[in-house]
Amino acid sequence: MSGTKAPLRLAIAGLGTVGAGVLRLLTENRDLIEARAGRAIAVTAVSARDRSRDRGVDLSAYAWHDDMAELAARDDIDVVVELVGGADGPALALARQALGAGKGFVTANKAMIAHHGQELAQAAEEHGAALRFEAAVAGGIPVLKGVREGAAANAIDRVYGILNGTCNYILTAMESTGADFGETLAEAQAKGFAEADPAFDIDGVDAAHKLAILAALSFGAEIDFGSVEIEGIRRVCAADIAQADALGYVVRLIGVADIEQSENGPRLLQRVRPCLVAKDHPLAPIDGPTNAVVAEGNFSGRLLFQGAGAGDGPTASAVVADLIDLARGDTGAPFSVPAAQLVAMPKADSGARESRSYIRFMVADRPGVLAEITAAMRDAGVSIQSLIQEGEANGTEGVLVAMVTHTGPVRCVRDAVAMLEGSESLVDEPLVMPILRS
Ligand SMILES: NC(=O)C1=CN([C@@H]2O[C@H](COP(=O)(O)OP(=O)(O)OC[C@H]3O[C@@H](n4cnc5c(N)ncnc54)[C@H](O)[C@@H]3O)[C@@H](O)[C@H]2O)C=CC1
Ligand SMILES: N[C@@H](CC=O)C(=O)O
Ligand code: NA
């Protein structure tokens, strides 16, 4: 079909949700993939933990390796595809080996790229190999391609979005059905969205991995996962979602990265936390495992990328798109610029940022409690826009007091909360959620 070009030969490590999806996609769409890639893309060898597991795909045509480290050593392989996971360990060893041997390397592993992406990009350059990881950020959405290629001419100084399908699935289910957190997490796990350790999802770490990669690529910054401020969704309760709704907002886990200019060069701020999102904001209707990313280019204006952020089909689509690029001979720098040109950007001070905030207190039902809270706000310089006191919140001890502040420094809200620490009026630690600016 494509003439005489030799096929691109793959070894795939990991045949779980994503790996099995990639095998299915390569089989079902073989002809169109070959036509678009200009050559066949053929699997030669595979490795996973359990050879006999029924994955709904026929493995009989592929060489099997119990030890995935052997894949990179095969001389009949052009590209190693890593769909195992884990920041370090065998996945990282395989990446180093494959790139060191001059083979292409395609992965969906955001944990590994967030921690070691720069080293791996450098290794790829040194050995003339290609490294790609579109599936690692926002699953099936071609957001890395969109930023790296489609928006390549723009300076981008803010990128943000919904980067974790599991959290979005949980939050939107809590919103629409009032379902409980644990039950909804189990559903997300059963559908294959959740990470091997779902704490990575609900504690915001997975979104932070993706944000760190997206920020590096968007801003030309060194990857700095360590400086991401992270808060997950464990403490968001049904009453918060109901209060947000009454105020005209929905609750979403949002990753935001931006750069601010200072005398000493650009500073980077990366934060992942549950936020209140106005119902007319483009991120508000994003539900279920869908992800959405907004990138603000200085010529393009606001770009919105939206689609399935997790699951076998969408994630496989991103992996195979990378493989098609490699088959076509695109070996360009994965972070837009060579790894050595990525700029080290110190962390910006999040306390100095201005924001409106939602603050929820669970308080003891007794006189003087509200006065104590509002005094702390006054002393810390926080201006309250609205305050709601509810009866006993469902399934919780105490009375819910929720407030929305006027725009002011984040530090003042932190100071107010710190002043109330240890107060006998509070039956739980306050929850602060910023209101996402449009
Ligand atoms: N599931 C999803 O929706 C998405 C997953 N990802 C990423 O894709 C990667 C794979 O995720 P899933 O397919 O969901 O995981 P999974 O747990 O379903 O599959 C992992 C596979 O790796 C194999 N494996 C584990 N340790 C191994 C070892 N030492 N040697 C050989 N094989 C080994 C397992 O046998 C299994 O086949 C992860 O990095 C994940 O973060 C990225 C985007 C979306
Ligand atoms: N666990 C992740 C899977 C995709 O990256 C998620 O829920 O988004
Ligand atoms: Na993607």
From TrEMBL:
Residues where NADPH binds: K110
Enzyme class: oxidoreductase
An example Gene Ontology molecular-function term: NADP binding
Residues that coordinate or bind L-homoserine: E195
UniProt cross-references to InterPro entries, sorted A to Z: ACT-like_dom_sf (IPR045865), ACT_dom (IPR002912), Asp/hSer_DH_NAD-bd (IPR005106), HDH (IPR016204), HDH_cat (IPR001342), HDH_CS (IPR019811), NAD(P)-bd_dom_sf (IPR036291)
Binding-site residues, NADP(+): A13, G14, L15, G16, T17, V18, G19, A20
Cross-referenced SUPFAM superfamilies: ACT-like, Glyceraldehyde-3-phosphate dehydrogenase-like, C-terminal domain, NAD(P)-binding Rossmann-fold domains
PROSITE patterns in the cross-refs: ACT, HOMOSER_DHGENASE
Active-site positions on this chain: K210 (proton donor)
Enzyme Commission number, as recorded: 1.1.1.3
CDD domains linked to this entry: ACT_HSDH-Hom
Family that this chain belongs to: Belongs to the homoserine dehydrogenase family.
Name of protein: Homoserine dehydrogenase
